[in-house]
Amino acid sequence: MNIEELWFPIIEQWLAQIFLGNQRIYLAIDRTNWKIKNLLMISVIYQKRAIPICFQLLAKLGSSNLEEQTQALSKIIPLFNKYKMVVLGDKEFCSVSLAKWLYNQGFEFCLRLKKNENIELKDNLWCEIKDLGLKPGTSFFVSEATVTKKRLACTTSCCFLVSSNSRYN
Asked: For residues 71 and 142, what is the distance between their CA atoms, to the nearest angstrom?
């Protein structure tokens, strides 16, 4: 027996008791070094708390890659068939490749972008995030925007890009 066979039925029952069908559920994906372990975790956000539902020990230290991220997320997809899922990711999870994968899986998502990232807000109207006048700690949500950089990251002045109707080049 593995952790998914034991844990996932419990999570399914909990979800059914707490959330209505087709309700939006927020999932946080995060990675942390814990002593000499490197842990990739997916949690349900519930009542301002992150409830771990899936974790994966990585065989290396440092950031996770696209394959590790999509492998972990693929495990939990069947648990959320009845719900609308929104994946929240910090600076480690902001890549155009991950955004495309999430979009193709039917996930909504919110990813942090670096302040020098260029986005197309409207046809041929491009803006560097730092030119929006955002202060550190400020959230700014953009929909229907095109992101052109291949590698996305975050600094202290952050912007979020929401997946709804966004295009990824």
From this structure: 27
pLDDT tens per residue across span 62-103: 999 999 999 999 999 999 989 999 999 987 887 778 888 998
Alpha carbons 28 and 84: distance in angstroms, whole number: 14
State both tokens at 59: 């065989």
> Residue 6: which H helix or E strand, with range?
helix 3-18
According to DSSP H, which parts of 39-167 are helical? 66-76, 96-105
pTM above 0.85, yes or no: no
Nearest in space to 38 (alpha carbons), one of 57, 15, 16: 57
Tokens of 31: 């990675």
Sheet containing 24-34: give its strands across: 49-58, 37-46, 24-34, 84-89, 108-113, 159-162, 141-142
CB atoms within 10 A of CB 3: 11
Cα 87 to Cα 84: distance, rounded to the nearest angstrom: 10
